[in-house]
Amino acid sequence: MIRVGIPRALLYYQYYPMWKTFFEALDAEVIVSPATTQTMLAGGSSRVVADTCLPVKVFLGHVLNLAKECDYIFIPSIRSVKKRVYNCSKFLGLPDMTRAVIPEAPPILDTEIDINKPSRTLYQTIYQLGRHFTWNPMKIKQAATAAWQAHKDYYQLMAQQTLTPPQAIAALTDKTMPAPQLPANASPAAQTRVALIGHPYMLYDEHINHRLITKLQHYGIQVFIPEMVTTPDLEMYTDRLVGNAYWTYEHEVVGAGGYYLDSKVDGVIGAMAFGCGPDSLMMDVVRRQANRQREHAFMCLTLEEHTAEAGLVTRLEAFLDMVTRKKRRRQELCV
Amino acid sequence: MRIGLPHIGNLNIAMKALFDGLGVDYVIPPHNNRRTLSLGVKYAPEGLCIPFKLTLGNIIEAAEMGADTILMAAGYGICRLGYYAKIQEQILHDLGYNAEMVQLGVSEKKLYGFLQMVKRLSNNASWFKIISAFRFGMAKLNALDDIERLVQKTRPVEHQPGTTNQLYAKAIQDIDQACDNASIKRVKQEYIEKLLSANKNGNARPLIVGITGEFYVVLEPFSNLDIEVELGKLGVEVRRSTFISEWTKFSWFLNPLGVNEKDRIHQAAMPYLKRDIGGDGWESVGEKVLHAKEYDGIVHLAPFTCMPEIIAQNIMPTTRETIPVLTILCDEQLAKPGMLTRLEAFVDLLERRRRTANKAQ
């Protein structure tokens, strides 16, 4: 049985159920790297130049972890999933860069997804990916259809049960339903509500963000995440804030940011990686919008491998104090 | 309507000629200086690259001088640069300037979009007038780039240190003042002769260093702290393939016709980087591979946090074609003494390599 490795980093959080279904339908075994550890991060960092961004270093750490355990590693180069909206260079060059800096890695399946090319090209790409496992085109077609269905189910599950991507993936793979930890609409009005915005690989990788969500919940905060906003809303707010979308995965930041700044939450926290190209612009757009509205508190956490937990906690506490005070004053005014 | 635009290399001279020819009111902001940089750094989001900060500084200075229409490059699929105009417009409005940013799409509409824009900006001048003004601007740009190529060759072998730079500065002035095609030709010829006579002997074989990397920092001497001049002082001949005139010629006229000057570079990069990653990352890798035999070393210039160049920087050391590469990250923190130390060490290394290679022969 051919073993395909999928690193638990970057686009894993968006597409894992789809990829897993596809490879398993082609009788391959899917191996996922374990949750990020300090060793992985250090290993990934040691391979690249210092100013590569944190998520990419983490990604390479995961690849190193998988290197000996599988026959192929799946690293797609996703150029575009929507017409005329392109992706960050780091996603485009990811397979080539991994091959260059981790020469001991097994062969890399570097499928290039570009929706701007004719649809025939997309089908051919999928077929070529499947060819590594079977000669049978019908089997590949069935696998692709099943994968697409799995992807839709995954997003539906997250939206319906308000699960975070890791919870939804756990629910799909283990078939045991965890209790939803982020109840959306069933809380007392007095509770402080904070929205988190950022890419899934920043928000749900607990090593990168020092368990940000868990920490907020410990303070008794009700946490909102970008996945709770519907796609039309995300697109509408992206459009309102920056005009046509420019990067593929920016509605998670700018669309969600705009949406939550307009909603009933008490504060918005943005999590971005140091040196992230798209986010350096998009977080700034959200910050400007927050300044203009003067209604919600906004804080941007820039995370990197030197970010210390104590510093993060201090900033979080100060931010929450501010949010609470603001909220109290507003209630006093109302009374 | 008063047009303003940011600086990059000698582009302002060509644009001046174009606007003069069209009879449009315009301002040219002061050349990049410390104030431009501090304005840019002050108002730009911190994580952005030096091209954004410097062009923002230029734009603010242009707005201070009364520009109400500002030209800025933009477009899809070319790293962050395509998005800068929108953010800069927001920053400008937040600062209280009411200028309109006109985005010159460089990757989607090419020639057609550009001409449409020119038609609008030139108060509906006739196409004949537009084309002749444009050709005049291009002629200036071509002349300047031809002179610059010779300047790069002459710097390391000049009789009297500093002559070449003086000649080049004067050449820029004279070309700027030239008022018709004949005088451009005359000025160009005159300076080419002067430069050739400044050369001390034809037999010297100076070290050859290729300059590659991100478009803006390669072309704008203020952002790379005059790296070409400094290399010249160290006795190194600089070569680069990025010139604004070449770029305009290809990206607006020849690429739409299917001629791409970069095909050779892309082919060379293929074994290591299979696809375009935006910006100039593909070209950086390709140029290293292509010129490994030809040059003694390569200086790779990249703005700090530049996404495509980081990928290129990670891939470059692993190519089979070996040639020393010095990556210099340009940002507002880059200081001359530090850069000079690194350049001197790099040139020492190249000299030693050449000596051992000669001995082996």
List keywords for this structure.
heterodimer, A: 335 residues, alpha/beta, Rossmann fold, 2 domains, four-stranded parallel sheet, 52% helix, B: 361 residues, 3 domains, 11% strand, globular
Layout of SSEs?
The complex is a heterodimer of chains A (335) and B (361).
Chain A: E1 3-6, H1 12-25, E2 29-32, H2 38-47, H3 54-66, E3 72-74, E4 77-80, H4 89-92, H5 94-101, E5 108-109, E6 112-114, H6 119-130, H7 137-161, H8 165-174, E7 193-197, H9 200-203, H10 212-218, E8 222-224, H11 231-242, H12 251-261, E9 267-273, H13 277-293, E10 297-303, H14 309-334
Parallel strand pairs in A: 1-2, 1-3, 3-5, 4-6, 7-8, 7-9, 9-10
Chain B: E1 3-4, H1 11-22, E2 26-27, H2 34-43, H3 50-64, E3 69-74, H4 81-94, E4 100-105, H5 110-121, H6 127-154, H7 163-177, H8 181-198, E5 207-213, H9 215-219, H10 227-233, E6 236-240, H11 244-254, H12 263-269, H13 281-290, E7 297-303, H14 307-315, E8 325-330, H15 336-360
Parallel strand pairs in B: 1-2, 1-3, 3-4, 5-6, 5-7, 7-8
Helix pairs in contact in B: 1-6, 2-3, 3-4, 6-7, 6-8, 7-8, 12-13, 13-14
Outline of the structure:
Chain A has 335 residues and is an alpha/beta fold.
Describe the structure.
By secondary structure, chain A is an alpha/beta fold. Chain A folds into 2 domains: 3-161, Rossmann fold; 182-334, Rossmann fold (3-Layer(aba) Sandwich). Helices cover 52% and strands 13% of the residues of chain A. Chain A has 14 helices and 10 strands. Chain A has helices at residues 12-25, 38-47, 54-66, 89-92, 94-101, 119-130, 137-161, 165-174, 200-203, 212-218, 231-242, 251-261, 277-293, 309-334, and strands at residues 3-6, 29-32, 72-74, 77-80, 108-109, 112-114, 193-197, 222-224, 267-273, 297-303. Chain A has a 4-stranded parallel β-sheet with strand order 2-1-3-5, with helices on one face. The longest helix of chain A is centred in the last third of the chain and has 26 residues, at 309-334. Chain A is globular. Chain B is an alpha/beta fold and 361 residues long. Chain B contains 15 helices and 8 strands. Chain B has helices spanning 11-22, 34-43, 50-64, 81-94, 110-121, 127-154, 163-177, 181-198, 215-219, 227-233, 244-254, 263-269, 281-290, 307-315, 336-360; strands at 3-4, 26-27, 69-74, 100-105, 207-213, 236-240, 297-303, 325-330. In chain B, the strands form 2 sheets. A 4-stranded parallel β-sheet of chain B has the order 2-1-3-4, sandwiched between helices. A 4-stranded parallel β-sheet of chain B has the order 6-5-7-8, sandwiched between helices.
